[in-house]
Design a protein that fits this description.
The protein is α/β, with parallel strands linked by helices and about 400 residues long. Helix content is about 35%, strand content about 25%. Helix 1 packs parallel to helix 10 and helix 10 packs antiparallel against helix 11. The strands form 4 sheets. Strands 5-4-13-14-15-12-17-16 form an 8-stranded mixed sheet, with helices on both faces. The longest helix is centred in the C-terminal third of the chain and has 31 residues. It comes from Advenella mandrilli. Keywords: Monooxygenase, Oxidoreductase. InterPro entries: FAD-bd (IPR002938), FAD-dep_Monooxygenase_BioMet (IPR050493), FAD/NAD-bd_sf (IPR036188). This is FAD-dependent monooxygenase.
C-alpha cells in the first residue's frame, strides 16, 4: 500500500533529502522538486552532534558521512584577544560513551552527496532540478503542486522543505517578518595545508569576546578548516549566503582579535557575509495533506549548531509517523508535528538565548572571562543546555 502513496517534497536541501531518503526506506513513493539547476551545497561546514549522527545512522548513511568528515578531539573556548583556552567538552571517546555516537564536523557538500546517493540508490529519478515552486492546492483526497514553469504535479502528500523563504509555509500561514538580529556572519574555508602548523589541529575552537565570536573546526577528512565569524553591527542586513566580502572588511570587524583569528581571515580564499535574521517559532506546521520540515518550519540562529541536525531528525520522525499512521495520512502529519514542534521550538529559543553567552561584555578581560565561563559554561549549565538535545533518539521518540 505504501508504494501507492506519492509524497511530493518541495526543496532538495538537507531537510528535503533527509525526508526523501527516510520515506523511500519506508517504502513510500517520493518525488523531490528543487529550484536549483544543479544540486550542490555551499562550501561550508556544519556540526553534527551525537543526536544528528544517530539520525544519519537511521538513514543508512552515517558511515559514509563519517568517512568524509572529522571527529574533533575536543571543543574549546578561546578568549578573543589573548587566545587563552578553556575546555568546553570532549567530542571524542567521552561523547561516544555518553551519547552513543560522536560529534562530527561535516563539509556540507559531503553530507549532501551522501543524501543524494542514498535517494538515487533507491529511486534514481526522484530528484527534479530547475523546478521552482509556485503554489499548491489540496482537497480531501489529493494534493497538487504547481511550479513556476507551469508544470503541475499531483500526489497524496506535500512536504515543504523549501527553506527560510518557504513558498509552502507562506501559502499556509502568510509571510513571516524576520527581525534583523544585529549581527553579521562571515564564512570561509581554508586549505589546511596553508595554515600555520599550530592551527592544523583536530579541535573545534569557539573564540568569544565582547560583541562577537568566531568558530573554526576541521572538515573533509582534515583537508580544510572551516571559519565562521559573527560580529555585532547594524549596517548590513542582506540575508544571503552568496554575498562576497573582502578580507579587509572582515579584518576590520575583528580588529584587535587574536592573530590566529586574523590569520584564518587572511588565508581564506573567499569570504562571504550574511545578515543573521531572527524568527520566532511558528505555532503550526500542518494543514491537511501539507506539512513542513527543516528551516521552513523552524529557522534558527546558528548558536546551538542544530539547524541541519534538526532538519535530519524531522525527516526520520516524519517517515516513522507516515509508516505508523499510513491509513490516515492527515493524522500522520499531525502526529509528526506533535512529535517535533516542542523540541524544535525549544531549540530555536535556546539558540537565541546563547547569543549573549558568546558576546558578553564580561569577556573583555581574562579575569572577567574566567568568572563568566565558570558561571555560564560550567558542567551543570552545559548539561542543561545540551544533554536534552544530544540524548534524543529519532527511532524511539514518542510518536
Amino acid at each position: 500500500m505504501k508504494k501507492d502513496i506519492k509524497v511530493i517534497i518541495a526543496g532538495g536541501g538537507i531537510g528535503g533529502l533527509s525526508a526523501a531518503l527516510a520515506l523511500l526506506r519506508q517504502g513510500f513513493d517520493v518525488e523531490v522538486y528543487e529550484q536549483a539547476k544543479e544540486l550542490r551545497e555551499v562550501g561550508a561546514g556544519i556540526q553534527i552532534s551525537p543526536n544528528g549522527s544517530r539520525a544519519l545512522d537511521a538513514l543508512g548513511i552515517y558511515e559514509n558521512v563519517k568517512a568524509d568528515s572529522c571527529n574533533p578531539e575536543k571543543k574549546e573556548f578561546r578568549l578573543w584577544n589573548t587566545g587563552k583556552s578553556w575546555l568546553l567538552f570532549d567530542l571524542g571517546d567521552d561523547a561516544v560513551e555518553k551519547y552513543g555516537y560522536p560529534y562530527l564536523t561535516v563539509y556540507r557538500p559531503d553530507l549532501l552527496k551522501a543524501l543524494v546517493d542514498g535517494v538515487e540508490a533507491i529511486k534514481p529519478n526522484a530528484i527534479h532540478l530547475d523546478s521552482k515552486v509556485h503554489s499548491f492546492s489540496q482537497d480531501k483526497d489529493s494534493i497538487k503542486l504547481k511550479l513556476e514553469n507551469g508544470q503541475e504535479i499531483s500526489g497524496d502528500l506535500l512536504i515543504g522543505a523549501d527553506g527560510v523563504r518557504s513558498a509552502i509555509r507562506n501559502q499556509l500561514w502568510g509571510p513571516t517578518n524576520p527581525n534583523f538580529s544585529g549581527m553579521v556572519a562571515w564564512r570561509g574555508v581554508i586549505p589546511m595545508k596553508n595554515l600555520p602548523e599550530h592551527l592544523q589541529k583536530m579541535v573545534g575552537s569557539t573564540w568569544i569576546g565582547p560583541g562577537g565570536h568566531a568558530v573554526n573546526y576541521p572538515l573533509h577528512r582534515g583537508e580544510i578548516m572551516n571559519f565562521v565569524g559573527t560580529i555585532e553591527r547594524k549596517d548590513w542586513q542582506v540575508e544571503s549566503w552568496s554575498t562576497q566580502g573582502t578580507a579587509e572588511e572582515c579584518l576590520n570587524d575583528f580588529k584587535g582579535w587574536h592573530e590566529d583569528v586574523q590569520t584564518m581571515i587572511r588565508l581564506s580564499p573567499q569570504l562571504f557575509k550574511w545578515a543573521l535574521m531572527q524568527r520566532d517559532p511558528i505555532p503550526q506546521w500542518t494543514q491537511g495533506r501539507v506539512t513542513l520540515v527543516g528551516d521552513a518550519a523552524h529557522a534558527t540562529l546558528p548558536f546551538l549548531a542544530q539547524g541541519a541536525v534538526q532538519s535530519i531528525e524531522d525527516g526520520v520522525v516524519l517517515a516513522r509517523c507516515l509508516d505508523k499512521y499510513v491509513h490516515d495520512l492527515p493524522l500522520a502529519f499531525e502526529k509528526y508535528e506533535s512529535a517535533r514542534i516542542e523540541r524544535t521550538s525549544k531549540m530555536v529559543r535556546g539558540a537565541t538565548a546563547n547569543t549573549g553567552r558568546f558576546h558578553s561584555a564580561e569577556l573583555e578581560t581574562e579575569e572577567g572571562a574566567e568568572a563568566y565561563l565558570q558561571r555560564e559554561w560550567g558542567s551543570n549549565p552545559i548539561a542543561d543546555r545540551y544533554d536534552w538535545l544530544y540524548r534524543y533518539d529519532v527511532l524511539t521518540a514518542e510518536i
